[in-house]
Amino acid sequence: MKETKVMKVKISEKNGKSIFKEWFATLENKAKTKIIRRFAQITTGNLGDHKHLRDKIAELRFKDGHRIYYTMISPTMLLLLGGTKSNQNRDIERAVKWLKELEK
User: Closest Cα partner for 11 from 104, 78, 102?
Assistant: First the structure.
């Protein structure tokens, strides 16, 4: 029997601020549902379409163009922020800066 690696998903916050929550609140319900389903999948160890980008930053990729940037603090996936494929370069820079801010 294959062992399932259980992971936790946590939203990053500092001083009550969460860039991820702010972004998520702007999404339509259909997109929110897809993302929540993906998180359920991740907790069983199946990340789906994802890619390491640079430093400690990786992304979850969605077919509709949404991106979620995260870092791993094993066994926890720490969500940094969300965005879209069209703003990917800018969002990656924001994710790097946000992670540095969280590490202070």
Answer: 78
Closest by CA position to 51, among listed 75, 65, 30, 70: 70
| Residue 1 falls inside a structural domain | no
Any domain includes 46: yes
Domain CATH for 63? 3.30.2310.20
pLDDT tens series, the chain, 104 aa: 455 576 899 999 999 999 999 999 999 999 999 999 999 999 998 999 999 999 899 999 999 999 999 999 888 999 999 999 999 999 999 999 999 999 98
Q: Fill in the amino acid letter for 11.
A: I
Residue 67 lies in a domain: yes
State how far the alpha carbon of 88 is from the alpha carbons of 1, 5, 54, 69, in Å. 39, 29, 13, 10
